[in-house]
Structures are given as C-alpha cells and as structure tokens.
Recover the amino acids of this structure.
C-alpha cells in the first residue's frame, strides 16, 4: 500500500474527522443522560409527531431490535476489532475518498458511544445496556428505538457505501470521461505547437550543420588553391633563374 502523505490538507481533514468523532460521542452521552433523567422523573414519553415519532427511554442489552441480547463477549470482541479497522480506513480513504472517510468517522463515533454504555452501565464485564430514547411509531413490527450513536452508525455506513460506489474520486461506478472540448482542444493545440517548434528547431540545426560543413569544405578548397598558386609561383621563379 502506498504511504499516505500527511500534508496540510490531510492534517486539517483528520482534525475535522476527530472533531466529528468527539462531538458525536459527547452528543450521544449527553442526550442519553438527559432522557434517562427525564424518564426517572416520569416525564416520558414525549410525543414528537403523533403515531410517527416520540421520545422515550429503553435499555437495550442487544443489538438492533434487541437481537443478540446477552452476548457481551461478542460485542466486546467486535468493538475491539472494529474500532482500529474503522480508524485505519479513515487514513486509507484520505486521498481518494473524503466522503467515505468522513463516513468512517461517523461509524467510529457511534461505535464508541454505544461501547461506553456497554462498558460502564452494567454490573459485569461489558454487559451494560445501551440507552435508547428515540422511538418510531409508523413501521409496525419494524418499529425501533435508537439513540444518537445508532444514527451516527447508520448514516456513516450509508456514507461509506455511497462514497466508495459513486461519490469518491476513485469510486467504483464513477465515470471518468476523457477530457474533451475547449480544454482538450487547447491541450492538443499546445502539444501540436510544441512538436512544430521542435521540428523547426531540428531543421534549423540541420541547416546550420550543413552550412558549417559547406563553409569548411570551401575553406579547404581555397587553402588548397592558395597552396597550388604558391607552388606554381615558386616553379616559375626557379625556371626564370635557370634560364638566366
């Protein structure tokens, strides 16, 4: 795997992810504590939308819809294994998928939020009940009660799926069309001008070389002619001296 370069942009994004995780956990715990207090005072349920949504308070020892109730060891193992993996994927997705990386930050926040309940609100090892307070009333048998951590988890999973499939830069189904139009024409024209310039440059160099070669040959011929003339003059002088 290629190393992730922690440049300024990546560091800022990681800080944002960290802020999302922290704010999500704090918001989850504060709201759980608030509605638990309201329940103890007898102020619940509070109807938000009749036959649609209401605030209540329920202790859930399992997962969604109370499934896997009592499997505290399983929840502990899943939490310990999943958290480092989710954090790792935040780093992995930095370059190609900010959207899915943020989704993993949501998932980390939700995982920690519910893990706190399981760790601190029970009488044994990781067997605490998760505090839920937001109840649906329009799904019949599929109605559920959830909390901020559950919402973060589900929104995060949806963001990760959408990001990796469609939104991220390296998304599986994201189209990467070839550059065309004005930008493509401009680049093609620039490339053509570059080749034309290089051809002219090469032709000019060839002409210079040819010119230098011709000049060199001409100088050689002139030198040979001068030498011949000097030799001829010498012979003439010799002949003249002999005849005298």
């Amino acid at each position: 795997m290629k190393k992730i370069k922690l440049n300024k942009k990546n560091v800022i994004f990681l800080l944002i992810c960290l802020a999302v995780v922290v704010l999500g956990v704090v918001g989850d715990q504060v709201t759980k504590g608030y509605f638990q207090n309201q329940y103890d005072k007898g102020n619940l349920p509070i109807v938000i939308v009749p036959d649609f949504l209401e605030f209540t308070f329920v202790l859930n020892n399992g997962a969604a819809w109370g499934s896997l109730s009592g499997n505290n060891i399983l929840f502990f193992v899943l939490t310990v294994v999943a958290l480092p993996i989710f954090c790792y994927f935040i780093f992995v997705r930095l370059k190609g998928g900010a959207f899915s990386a943020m989704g993993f930050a949501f998932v980390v926040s939700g995982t920690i939020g519910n893990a706190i309940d399981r760790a601190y609100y029970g009488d044994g090892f990781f067997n605490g009940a998760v505090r839920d307070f937001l109840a649906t009333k329009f799904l019949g048998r599929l109605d559920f009660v959830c909390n901020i951590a559950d919402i973060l988890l589900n929104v995060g999973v949806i963001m990760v799926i959408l990001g990796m499939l469609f939104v991220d830069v390296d998304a599986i189904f994201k189209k990467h069309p070839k550059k065309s139009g004005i930008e493509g024409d401009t680049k093609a024209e620039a490339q053509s001008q570059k080749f034309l310039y290089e051809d002219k440059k090469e032709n000019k160099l060839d002409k210079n070389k040819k010119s230098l070669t011709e000049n060199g040959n001409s100088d050689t011929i002139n030198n040979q002619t001068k030498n011949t003339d000097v030799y001829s003059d010498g012979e003439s002088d010799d002949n003249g001296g002999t005849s005298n």
Summary: Residues 73 and 195 are 69 Å apart (CA to CA). Confidence is low (pLDDT under 50) at residues 235-244.
